Amino acid sequence: MQTEVILLEDIHGLGRRGDNVRVKPGYARNYLLPRSLALEATSAGARLFQEKERSRSIQENRLRHAAEKEAEKINKLTVTIPVQAGEDGKLFGSVTNADIAEAMDKAGTQVDKRSILLEEPLKELGVYLVRVKLFQEVEARIRVLVTNQAS
Question: Which CATH number fits domain 71-148: 3.40.50.720, 3.10.150.10, 3.10.430.100, 3.60.21.10?
């Protein structure tokens, strides 16, 4: 015997969010339903799923719009990070995404350091364009000016 459920999340090996799948009753009762990973595939469950999807879609659009506004602000921003460097322009140490996040915070824009996408730490003086991931497909680029610290 099988129970039909509507998935609320993508589950590897079972299906994607919104799929109607048939599973064993114990799996549905003991795992999927208590963890809010699925709803029973009844007419009430289908209505509840549609309502959850609608509210999730509205929330996602709101977050995307806020991220796009933030991206416009970040694209115009230039941060300067003074560091100690040798005669040849090589840094004593490096500039990491945490340093860039701190500089952005001082400039009035808070971003989580994990959102700053650096291929590798910056190790030379210069101007760099650094990607900042704000939302699923929303990215911004910030100009980072690495200068020699006045001794």
Answer: 3.10.430.100
**Which neighbouring-strand residues pair with 132?**
116, 140
**Rounded to whole angstroms, how far apart are CA atoms 99 and 70?**
20
The residue to which tokens 């007419």 are assigned: 43
Q: How confident is the model at residue 143 (pLDDT cuts 50, 70, 90)?
A: very high
CATH superfamily for domain 3-61: Ribosomal protein L9, N-terminal domain (3.40.5.10)
Of 80, 74, 94, 88, the residue nearest 127 (C-alpha): 80
- How confident is the model at residue 30, as a pLDDT? 94
Can you give the pLDDT at residue 148?
Answer: 86
CA distance 29 to 51: 22
Question: Is residue 85 within 8 Å of 111, Cβ to Cβ?
Answer: no
Ordered by start, the domain boundaries in the chain are 3-61, 71-148
pLDDT for the residue numbered 150 = 64
Query: Contact 135/111 with Cβ under 8 angstroms?
Result: no
